[in-house]
Design brief:
alpha+beta; 15% strand; 581 residues; seven-stranded antiparallel sheet
Amino acid sequence: MRIVCGFLVLLFLGSGSPTPYEHIRSHPAPAAPEYAESGMVVSARRLASAAGVQMLKQGGNAVDAAVATGFALAVVHPVAGNLGGGGFMVIRLPDGSVTTIDHREEAPTGATQEVFLDAQGNAARARSRRGYLASGVPGTVAGLLMALERYGTMTRAEVMAPAIQLAADGFPLSYLQAQRFNEAYDAFAAFPATRKYFTKGDSTRRYRAGEVFVQRDLAKVLRRIRDKGRAGFYQGPTAARIAEQMAAHGGLIDRQDLARYEAVERAPVSVDYRGYTVHSMGPPSSGGVALAQLFHAAEQRNIGAMGYNSSATVHYLGEAMRRVYADRAKWLGDPDHVAVPTDALTDSSYMQQRMASFHPYRITPSDSVHAGAPVLAGESMETTHYSVADDSGMAVSVTTTINSGYGSKVVIDGLGFFMNNEMNDFVLKPGVPNLYGLSGTKRNLVAPGRRMVSSMSPTIVEDRQGRLHMVIGAPGGSTIITTVFQCIMNVIDHGMNIEEAVTARRFHHQWKPRALMMEAYALSRDTEQRLAARGWPVQLGFFGYETWGRAQGIRARYRTPDDPSYFGGSDPRRDGAAVGY
C-alpha cells in the first residue's frame, strides 16, 4: 500500500500538473520591515528617504521630512519624482486632526476640448500623451511649499539642502535607473533638450549602474525656489523659460497660467472600517471616494474568514470594484468646477444598495453594471508615493506624478526637469479611454483652469483608539485605489505586517475592460478555475505590466498607549527604501 501511494505521489509530482502550492513557493517571502523608534520615511529612493530622516534627526517634524523627501525625489527619481508635475498630500497633525493639500496640475487657459480633437472630431490621443501640448500647469512646488509654510517648522534652505546637493554633486544611478534611461533613448532623442540631459548623445553610449549623474541646471532651479519661494518657480527666470519653450513648440502654458496657480487645502474623505478610521483624498482625486465605497462594501462580509485572495474574496471584491469604477467614470470631476456628490457616494447605505445585486456564484452581467444613482443632497503607472511619520504621531502621506514614465518626455532646456503629460487624464471625448483604460463623462472634460480627475490615493489610517496606525499609498495609474485598498485590508483583515502587506500579490478590476486582472502568483490555479466558473474572464497583468502599485507604507506599534514606534515597508516591486531612526 505504501509503495502504491508513493508511486502515485511521484506520478503526480512528475506530471505536467502544478503542485497545490506551486504559486506560493514561487513567490519569495517578504523581507522584514524596517524598524524605528523615533521616525520613519518610506519612498521610491533610499537617498530621498534619507533626506527626510535627516530633517527628523535635526528636530524637524513629519511635514519638514516630507518636503525634503519630495524635493529629493525630484532629483533622484526623474521617472516620476518631479517639479514639473503635481499630486496630493494628506497630513495628520499631532492633535489627531487631518487635512489635505491638493496640488494637482490644472489645464492652461488655452486648453479647450477642441485642441485635443482632430478635424473629424475624434480624440487625438497622441496630443495629450507626448510633447509640449500634453502638459498641465505644474503644482508640486506650490504644494510642498504650502505644506512647509503652514505645518512645517524648518526653513526652505534646511529642507532643500539635500536635494540641491544631490543635483549639484550628483548621485550614483541604480541598475534599474541606468537601464531605463537607456531603454528610453528613442523617446528622449525626439526632443533636443531631453536628449541633452538624459542621453549621452547617441544610442551606443549607455549609462551604467553606479555612475554619478549630475544635474547642475536643476540645482539652479532648486536654489531659486530656496531663495524666492514659490516666486522662484512660478515667476522669474524659471517661469519665463517654461513659457518661452511652450510657446515655441506649440504648448499652452504661459506665464499667467504659472503665476495664477495655487495649491488648495481641502477636507479629507474619511470612512470608518471595522473601528479603524481611514482618511484619504477628496476630489479631484477619486481615491478617497472610491476607497470609502470599497470599505463600505467590504464591511458587509467577514473578509478575514473568507480568506486572503480566496475565490470567494476575489469574486465579492471584484464585483465591488466594478461598481466603484463605474461610479468613478460618471460622477467624479474637479469640485471647483462641477458638483461632485461626495457625501452621497460615500454613504454606507448607498453601497449596500449597490451590492444588493451581488450573486455568490456568478458575476453580474456586464451590460447591467453601470453607475449608480446616489441620493443627492441639494495614473502612470509611473507615479510615486512616500510616507512619513514622526515621534509625535504626526504623519504625511504624499502621492505625486508626472503621469506616464518621464511624463510628456519633454525637458525644459535650461531647467533640466521633465514636464507632465497630465492632460491625458482629462476626458478628451466622452467614452474615449485614457492611457490606463479609464473613461469618463463631461464632468472631466478639458476646460481652462480645471483639474483633471486622478486615482492618487494618499491615505492615513487611525486605530480604534484614534492613534496613528498606518500611512500608505502607491503609484500605478488606475490600480492605485485597489492597491491601497488591498494593503489596508491585508493589515486589518488578514493580520499581515507592513512589509507583507505591500509585498502581497494583487488583483484589480476597473469596470472597463471586462477582465479581472491579476499579478503573477496572485491566485492559485484552482482559484482561477473557480472564478472562471462564476463567469470571470481572468487576465494576467495590466496593460502590459505584470506587476503594479509599488506601495510605500508605515505601520505604528505602541510601546505604551502614547509612545509609538514604527515599521516601514517598501514594495519590492522596485528599489525603494524605508529609512528610520
